Amino acid sequence: MTTRQRQFLKGLAHPLHPLVQIGKEGVSQGIINTINAELLNHELIKVKIGNNSGLEKAGTSEEVAQETGAVLVQLIGKTFVLFKPNPEKPKDKRIILPK
Fold this sequence. Notes:
The protein has helices spanning 3-13, 29-42, 57-68; strands at 20-22, 44-49, 71-76, 79-83. By secondary structure, it is α+β, with helices and mostly antiparallel strands.
């Protein structure tokens, strides 16, 4: 992913609210399934790591991105942005990345 594409996605993600929160149970299969479902619906989502989770933010964000097959766009505090294109979505609803 190019710097320009990453900047484009950061701009799209700015007004979004976190759709998934990782709590004290950590990164379970249920959380991964929920993130995958949200990525199918939205392509670009924010995930928040709860303060009481005790998880390390950089490692957790990379692990979740790897498990879901998504791209880690950005990590701000305990919130990270994931992007995964969905070719099944109608063309007018898809996020089209700049070249």
